[in-house]
């Protein structure tokens, strides 16, 4: 909510972050985990660099949510209580898991709004300490994977994502 930070995010950080997220999303497209027709949500999107990156790689139906909206890329929304119907999105991305006051609710909302067979990617800090806004720190991937009760873990890999070092990819199970 800090206006000075928001100004930084839309100036010097903008291109750098859009390029980084674009490379991540392009790779997911090559792996058929994301497509131009995917309906996408960026959770805790601040000013929307992730949303802009999705649009630049050809995914037109992308929106972000944050407590402070930044139209047109980011609408007002609480990641503990997403303002969407069940099974809405094919793809959800977040790099703010460490900011969740209620990690169980954060993950439950992802699984509620993600379509069956939909993909969720979280960027988290494992080997480094989170930022000053961190409400929870992870020291292994196990506690996170236990929260995803209706999804399977597809992969864990190292990334260099602006203070976050690990990418965790889940696919929601098709519960029949």
Automatic annotation (TrEMBL):
SUPFAM superfamilies xref list: S-adenosyl-L-methionine-dependent methyltransferases
Pfam families according to UniProt: Methyltransf_11
Domain annotation Methyltransferase type: ranges: 41-122
InterPro entries, per the entry: Methyltransf_11, SAM-dependent_MTases_sf
Protein name (Swiss-Prot/TrEMBL): Methyltransferase type 11 domain-containing protein
């Amino acid at each position: 909510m800090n206006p000075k930070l928001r100004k930084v995010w839309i100036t010097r950080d903008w291109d750098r972050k859009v390029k980084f997220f674009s490379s991540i999303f392009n790779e997911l497209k090559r792996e058929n985990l994301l497509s131009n027709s995917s309906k996408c949500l960026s959770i805790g999107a601040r000013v929307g660099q992730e949303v802009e990156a999705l649009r630049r790689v050809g995914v037109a139906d992308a929106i972000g949510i944050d407590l402070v909206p930044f139209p047109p890329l980011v609408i007002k929304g609480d990641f503990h209580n997403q303002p969407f119907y069940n099974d809405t999105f094919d793809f959800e991305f977040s790099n703010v898991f460490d900011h969740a006051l209620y990690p169980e609710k954060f993950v439950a909302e992802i699984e509620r709004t993600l379509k069956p067979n939909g993909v969720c990617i979280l960027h988290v800090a494992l080997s480094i300490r989170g930022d000053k806004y961190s409400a929870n720190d992870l020291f292994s991937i196990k506690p996170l994977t236990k929260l995803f009760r209706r999804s399977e873990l597809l992969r864990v890999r190292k990334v260099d994502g602006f203070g976050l070092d690990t990418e965790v990819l889940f696919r929601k199970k098709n519960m029949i």
